[in-house]
Structure formats: structure tokens, C-alpha cells
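Key result, reporting period 2: structure in, sequence out.
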């Protein structure tokens, strides 16, 4: 009498649908047949930080989402689940567009020659950008259409 051993035909079990930033990063990585070490090498991020991100135990900064987006061939907006952000006010639209482009507040402020505090004020609808800035902002906001 022989003992029958059932072997799994797939290298990894079926993944439950995890529609979180971590789940999307993992799904995109696996779709490219990349190991965490491969993604770390491609992005300059540590294996540990990538593991924590995939487990949703840490938040990935917009600049690091840019790196991941390039390495994985998917959009920054997809990885960050930014489609779920509201865009009812101008401030919400500015924040969403900034994140879609993969900029943190400091980087976005540098583009406009403004402080991080002013960008935050725009995003919280405390301040309205002047006409001078609105023309430049329109190019960033276009991504939302």
C-alpha cells in the first residue's frame, strides 16, 4: 500500500481579493513574477519596507509610489487606491491630483515655489490659489478627467 501525497499544482495559493494599497502592490508584483528582493533591487526600497507595505502595516510615500509604479508598470493612482478619494471641493481635487502625480506636499510646493503649509492650506480649502497658480494647477488637475 502506497501513500498518496497530494501536491499543490500552483506555487502559491489563490489570493483573496485585497483591494488595499498593500494588496495592489503585491498583486502587481506577483503579476510581473517578481520576488520582494527583485522589487527591492528595482526600486531601491528595502525588502522589509516592501513587506510592511504589502501587509498594510506601513504607508508608502508618494515618491516611493512613483518608484513602485515605474518598476511594476502600473499607475501611481492604482497602487495608492486614490480613485477612492473625494473630489467635491477644489482642495480635494488638488490633493487627489498631487497624489495621482506621486508628489508629496513638499515636492508639490517646490514646483510652485510655495511652502508645504500653503499646499496644505489649498488642500484643506483654507486658501484658494490665485489666478497665477490656477493656470499651472489646471495642468495637474487634468489627470482627474
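The corresponding designed sequence is given below.
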Amino acid at each position: 500500500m502506497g501513500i498518496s501525497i497530494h501536491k499543490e499544482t500552483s506555487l502559491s495559493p489563490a489570493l483573496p481579493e485585497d483591494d488595499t494599497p498593500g494588496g495592489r502592490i503585491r498583486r502587481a508584483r506577483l503579476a510581473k513574477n517578481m520576488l520582494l528582493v527583485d522589487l527591492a533591487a528595482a526600486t531601491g526600497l528595502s525588502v522589509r519596507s516592501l513587506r510592511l507595505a504589502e501587509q498594510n502595516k506601513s504607508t508608502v510615500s508618494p515618491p516611493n509610489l512613483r518608484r513602485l509604479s515605474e518598476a511594476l508598470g502600473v499607475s501611481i493612482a492604482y497602487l495608492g487606491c486614490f480613485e477612492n478619494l473625494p473630489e467635491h471641493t477644489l482642495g480635494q481635487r488638488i490633493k487627489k491630483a498631487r497624489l495621482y502625480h506621486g508628489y508629496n506636499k513638499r515636492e508639490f510646493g517646490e514646483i510652485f515655489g510655495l511652502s508645504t503649509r500653503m499646499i496644505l492650506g489649498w488642500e484643506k480649502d483654507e486658501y484658494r490659489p490665485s489666478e497665477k497658480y490656477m493656470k499651472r494647477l489646471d495642468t495637474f488637475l487634468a489627470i482627474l478627467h
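Confidence is low (pLDDT under 50) at residues 1-14. The chain has two domains: 21-83, 85-144. This case is discussed further under Risks and Mitigation.
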